Structure formats: structure tokens, C-alpha cells
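Quick review question:
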């Protein structure tokens, strides 16, 4: 999930209640996006989760929902088809428009990519459309459906797709074969991003070529090599999300989306729920991630908490050295600070005097570049110990803590 997720429901095209997640940034959203998942998938796929998280980090809220009859949504999948999926997307856009704000960005994965292309003309506020491993022709999905002859002859049959049983009716086959996206893409009138992996063995990359060639500018193509069709590797889904977020900023009609903003003087830390420990740290307009290594049960998607602590001390040290060197006219060209944290027994620390038990030891090594003489280097070393964060860490710190109202 993204930094904050609200569970919502809205009526779909066939009248069933559709289950959705609205992934929100820390600050009020600068824009809204609408995501369409792959054929017989759900809103909670790895691709959907990481794409929504990346957009939220850029200040864009994303509504991702289960199509009728899938995931947590109501209705009978057997009654659905590509047309009803497109209608569900339009219903989702209507919901956003009425409750929040109309989506400016439409994103679709696999058949969901074809669906957002088809729905785009009916969502006038959308200024950007992005497809991920999408087919140019919805009929491409027919090759994935077994027992098509039986379905055509009998009218319906139960088939197994991705290890799960689904009842497929002839109307779905007929509907998939009745769409031509070429004219829609040619007249899209919106910025288009086509993302596709050349290693996709479910929807071949030639489909991306057809979409891209049919479209008019502004259009962009990004290779997702070496990802598979479903972006099952975390790093592939994350990469796609970050590329999408950066691209989307250029084409949004409203205010350029800023990074999630914490209140002045405050830092906000919030779980992303992508992994057991993953956090988003927001300070003003700036964000970074914190996590734990894989060996500790994390995703290794950001610095550990102690890494963050050391980074703060190192940054403050370097900044303090720069201020002092410039003030005194010292020829300091560059300062580099290397830090390491460990817990050791006090008896093993030569600088710990009479302290007992285990203590925290931060080793700090400073590299100074420039034609500095011995006295200048010694003065800068002394100044390093006077940086504000150093003083905070070596003083008595009180941390009053309470639950939010």
C-alpha cells in the first residue's frame, strides 16, 4: 500500500458494489490517478501496490479497485466483459469526481491498459494515460482462455486461469473480439506513456509498438526489461512506479505535484505497508524511505533507522565544517564524513571514562580536501564536535510521547 490507504466502495457499471483502495499522500493530494488491474487479477497485485506507493510519494492519490466479480467486489464475473470493465472505470472516475476530484492520470496494467485507453475519451479531465504490458487489441486475451470451442458451442464453461476457476460465457469472447483501439489511440488527445518489457511472454512487446505507432505526440516509451508480465519482482514494480510518477508530473493540468509536505518544523514518519518495516519519512517537501535489510525481515528499500541517525549527524557535521571554513576563509574544497554505529561494552571504549555496561559508539571519520595547513585541520576537527546534532546526541535528551487524538 501507499503511505496512507482508505478503503472505499462505489457502485459499478452493472450495479454491484466495487471494492477499492484510495492511496493517499501525506499532504493533500495535488492530483488523482485511476488504476486498472490486469485480467482476472485484483487491485492488490504487486504492480498496483508499488505504482500507487510511488505516485503517493509524489503527491498523487491513486484509486485502485477490483473490477466487477473480482477480488473484494460484488457481482458475477461471468456477466462481465471488456465493455463492462471500461464502464467500471468510468464509474470509478465518476466516483472520484463526485467525492474528491476527477482523475487526471489513467494507468492500466495488461488488459487494464487496453481498458484505460478505451475509457480515456469518456474521462475528459484526464490529461495523461499510461499502459503497462498492455495488448493493442483486447482480443489478445482470447489466447489465454482455454476451452474456447466448448464455450462457443455450449455458451459457457468453467476454466482455470492463473490457478483459479472462473466461469466464462460466450458473450465475453464475443465482446473481446469486438473492439478496435487503433482509432481511439490515434484520437486520444492526451499524453501517453507506454511501458512494456521485451521479455513479456504473455503480451508480446509488438503490442507496445502498435500502441506507440498509432498514438500522436506527446508520447513516450519506456522498456521494463528484465521484468515479466506481472512485474512480480519488487524492484521491477518499484522502477515502473518511479518512472510513472516522474513522467506524470509533466502532464498534470493542476498545480505541479509537490512531495508530501509535513508541517513546518515537523517530520512525519508513516508506514507504507509495502513490507513489514517500510516507512516513508516526510520533512517539508522532502521524502526518504526507511526500511530494514532483507536479513532482518525488511525489503531493504531504504536506510535503516540507525542509518538515518548517522546520516543526520554526518550531514550536520559536514554543513558545520562548510560554514566555519567559509567564515574563516579556509581553503576547504570538500568534506566527507563516514560514520559507523555499534553497541559495545564500556570497558572496550577508551573514550568512555567510567561508564559501565553496554553503550552506543558512533565512530566518525572526517576527510578534508584542500590545501589546509595543520592548524586549520585541527580547528575543523574541533568544530566538528560542536555541530548541533552532535551536541543533541551528547546531551540529555527528553522525548515526551503521547497518542494522537
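Suggested answer, residue by residue:
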Amino acid at each position: 500500500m501507499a503511505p496512507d490507504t482508505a478503503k472505499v466502495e462505489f457502485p459499478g457499471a452493472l450495479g454491484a458494489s466495487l471494492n477499492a483502495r484510495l492511496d493517499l499522500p501525506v499532504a493533500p493530494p495535488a492530483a488523482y490517478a485511476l488504476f486498472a488491474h490486469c485480467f482476472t487479477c485484483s487491485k492488490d497485485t504487486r504492480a498496483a501496490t508499488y505504482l500507487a506507493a510511488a505516485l503517493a510519494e509524489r503527491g498523487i492519490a491513486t484509486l485502485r479497485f477490483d473490477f466487477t466479480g473480482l477480488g473484494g467486489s460484488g457481482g458475477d464475473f461471468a456477466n462481465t466483459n471488456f465493455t463492462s470493465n471500461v464502464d467500471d472505470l468510468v464509474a470509478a472516475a465518476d466516483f472520484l469526481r463526485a467525492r474528491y476530484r476527477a482523475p487526471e492520470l489513467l494507468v492500466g496494467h495488461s488488459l487494464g491498459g487496453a481498458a484505460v485507453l478505451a475509457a480515456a475519451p469518456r474521462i475528459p479531465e484526464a490529461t495523461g494515460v499510461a499502459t503497462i504490458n498492455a495488448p493493442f487489441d483486447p482480443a489478445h486475451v482470447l489466447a489465454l482462455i482455454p476451452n474456447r470451442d466448448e464455450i462457443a458451442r455450449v455458451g459457457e464453461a468453467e476454466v482455470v486461469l492463473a490457478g483459479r476457476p472462473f466461469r466464462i460465457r460466450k458473450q465475453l469472447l464475443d465482446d473481446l473480439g469486438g473492439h478496435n483501439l487503433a482509432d481511439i489511440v490515434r484520437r486520444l488527445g492526451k499524453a501517453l506513456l507506454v511501458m512494456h518489457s521485451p521479455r513479456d511472454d504473455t503480451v508480446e512487446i509488438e503490442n507496445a509498438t502498435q500502441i506507440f505507432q498509432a498514438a500522436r505526440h506527446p508520447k513516450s516509451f519506456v522498456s521494463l526489461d528484465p521484468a515479466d508480465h506481472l512485474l512480480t519482482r519488487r524492484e521491477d514494480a518499484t522502477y515502473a512506479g518511479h518512472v510513472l510518477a516522474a513522467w506524470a508530473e509533466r502532464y498534470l493540468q493542476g498545480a505541479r505535484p509537490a512531495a508530501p509536505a509535513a508541517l513546518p518544523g515537523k517530520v512525519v514518519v508513516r508506514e507504507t505497508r509495502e513490507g513489514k518495516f517500510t516507512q516513508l519519512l516526510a520533512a517539508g517537501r522532502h521524502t526518504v524511505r526507511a526500511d530494514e535489510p532483507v536479513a532482518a525481515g525488511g525489503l531493504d528499500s531504504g536506510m535503516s533507522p540507525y542509518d538515518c541517525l548517522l546520516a543526520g549527524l554526518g550531514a550536520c557535521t559536514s554543513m558545520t565544517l562548510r560554514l566555519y571554513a567559509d567564515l574563516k576563509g579556509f581553503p576547504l574544497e570538500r568534506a566527507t564524513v563516514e560514520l559507523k554505529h555499534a553497541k559495545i561494552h564500556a570497558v572496550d571504549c577508551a573514550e568512555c571514562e567510567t561508564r559501565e555496561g553496554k553503550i552506543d559508539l558512533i565512530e566518525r571519520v572526517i576527510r578534508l580536501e584542500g590545501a589546509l595547513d595543520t592548524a586549520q585541520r585541527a580547528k575543523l576537527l574541533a568544530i566538528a564536535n560542536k555541530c548541533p546534532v552532535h551536541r543533541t546526541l551528547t546531551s540529555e535528551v527528553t522525548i515526551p510521547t503521547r497518542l494522537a487524538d
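Why it works: The domain at 4-251 is CATH 3.40.50.1820 (Rossmann fold). Confidence is low (pLDDT under 50) at residues 255-260.
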